[in-house]
Structure formats: structure tokens, C-alpha cells
Amino acid sequence: MPLLRKRLIFLIIVLSFFGCKNSYKQHSSFIMGTIVEITLSKNDQHHLVDLTNYMNNLAEYLKANIKHLNEMKMGEKDKFDPTFIKLIEKGIYYSEISGGRFDITIYTLMKLYGFPEGPYDLPDDAQISEAAKNISYRNIILNGELIGKKSNFEIDMGAYAKGWIVDETVKKMKEFGIKDGIINAGGDLYCLGDKDGEGWIIGIQHPDEKGRVISVIKLKNKAVATSGDYERFFIKDGKKYIHIFDALKKKPADNYKSVSVIADTVEMADALSTVYYLMTPEEIKKVCKEMKTPVMVYNHDNKKLTFCGWEQFEKN
Amino acid sequence: MKRISLFDIVFLSLFLLTILYFIIVRLYSSNSNKSLILTIGDKQYEISLEEDKVVDLREYGKKMKISIKDKKARIIESDCPDKTCIRMGVVGSCGESAVCVPNEVSIHIKCSKSDYDAISK
After folding, report:
1. Spatial separation of the C-alpha atoms in residues B53 and B116, rounded to whole Å
2. Do residue B120 and residue A189 have CB atoms under 8 angstroms apart?
């Protein structure tokens, strides 16, 4: 019966057309001091617990290593895990790219202001100058498996460690055979796959108006991260103090309202959004070309500046 | 003229029912039903935005209060040190959120149909 066969094939095609579209579900939880949203297709939901646990374990691993290094005194050295040493090396690499403005040892000063979680207050001048003496990534001595301290600095990897955790979790997703999904750690996110060919639609938050976005981009197997002055800050005597510090000036920066970066890894997007935040637009233009990372800067005059091909990702 | 067979009737009915089902599903989802997702640690709770009320989070072990008014929500009380979550103000549009990191509490507007898959901020 060729006619019957034709009709059946037609019916199957119609049904599969409607049925093949994956639907996605988002789940949020608090990991590493931020809210993490994991978007997976309904078929992949059973991996959620494993992925969350994996992220929690990585966060604990980092926390323990950072605590150990921060508790060491000047002149001391100790053996650390190769993965942690690699992360320290990355911090030094981003410091060098920024010409020393980005520096993981800035936490020595930041914590005196109460960052990251408050209560916030201004430290006095004596405290600031005492902390300033200890700050410099050059005081971190790397020697094989050993990390040594040339001063009494403390580190914070908040600018890129979250990104590293997301990247490692994306590797895990691939191991599980997950083809499409998003991991969004407090706004720093990776879009795995292409959402069944459609591409993932990502909004970049407007710094002043919660319900609005300043750019809409379409991503496939790419990361985007944003650093801004609008989420973690305090105001004292009419002056705003934000959580991004310039290590050369030894004080909080307030160069732009926000800086967003597209990169191949969240770690890079995350770190460079902070590094670029500390640079002039001319410097960003130069460095983003070398790093091959599209950038969008939203300045204090509410103007959008885009560099290195950001527009190519924008959805019309 | 060709006679309509039983198979034709079954085939057409199945086809029309399929189309009807997807039209209903699409119409329903395009209504963009909004609700509030409350995240506490790794647990999530869905709260209706239809009724104005104050939700006390003491029953979840948190010294926080959330106000729901005119289908919008905001954190109005929190014992966290920096009060960033209170300063984050009203959340009402799809995807908007306010987060209290020290207490591990967030409120988030979930819509059945959102313009974005995620927000970078």
C-alpha cells in the first residue's frame, strides 16, 4: 500500500517536527558565595545533582587552598597542589596583562573595607599604608611545588576562580554527554552548544535599570562575563566605593558602569572584564585585539563602546 | 469519485488533534505566566504573585521578609551585614532577581516564556 505508507511517513514527520524541540529548565542554588543557575534540557535534568556537587567540591578545594596561603606569614613557603599553583600563575598572568593594576594580593587592602560581603567601612590611613606595603603579585614566589610569601599579603581569586569552576563543570557536562546548556555563576556564564541550532540569547544587564538590558547577544560554545560598579559597593559621606580595586593606586576604581567580555572560557571572560575595567578605552582596544576577546564598555555617560567585534555577536 | 476510507478519517483526526494540541500549548505558554522563585541554599520554592502579602522566611530559618505587591516582589527585611539585597529593590520583569549572598537567599521572576536564556551582570 504505497499510499498508506506515504501518509504514515507524513504523519511521523509532522509529529516529530513538533516533538523534537527540546525544552529547557533552569535550576538555581548557592555555590561559592554566589547564585548559580544551571540550564539543562529536560532529558539532562538527572545530571543536576552531580554537577552541583562537583561545583561545590571545586569551591571547597579553592577555599581551603586560599585559606592556607593567606594564613602563611612572610618568609614562609609550603607545598601546594599543581592545579592551585596553575591558578596562581594565571593570576600573575592577568596582573602582567593589566600592567599591575589587577592584582590578586589586593585582597590585603580590600578586606579592610569589608569586601566582599560587608559590613563595609573606610579603613584609616595607617591601616591603608600598612596594607599597601604588602601588596604586589611580585611578592608571590613560585618554585616548583612550593609557594612562598615575600610579604604579608592575602589573596582573593574572586575575579577569575568562579570562571575556572564553571569551565571545569562544563568539561564535566561534556563527559556526561550533555550537548546543550548554560552555567551562569552570578552573571558570568558559559553557553554550551547552540540550543538545537537556535543559539543562546543572553541579555547584558543595564547597570541602572533592573528590568532592562544594554545589549542582547547570541552565543554558541562561548562565555561572557560582566564586571560593574552597581552590585557590590557602599556609599560613605556621599562617595561610592566599589569592589574593584586598582592595585597601582591602592584604592577602589570607578572607571565605568560596566564592562562585558566574550571569550572561549569563563575564566578568561571573568578575569578580563576586571582587567579591562581598570584600563582606558584606548588600552582596552589594544589588549582585546591581542587577546581576541570582544568587549562592550558602558561608561558613566551612559554610552556604549564596543571593541574587537562585539557587534558581530549582537542579535538584531 | 474516491471513497473516504476509515483510515482517512483516523489520519485526519490524528493530524487535526496534533495541530490543536500544539496551538493550545503555544497559546498557554505565550501568556507568560509569572511566578516568584525563592531560592534558599540549594532548595527552590515557587510562590504565586497573584496575592499581595508579606512572606516571612523565619519558617525557612532566615531572618528575612519578602513583600509581594502588584505582582512584584522585593526583599524588605534582612539581617545580613550589607543589605545589598534590600537595595536591589523591586523585581517584577521576567528574569529579574534580588540576591542576598550572606543568607544564601534569592528571589527571581520566572516566566513561562522569557526573552533571554540568561542575563550577564
Report:
1. 28
2. yes
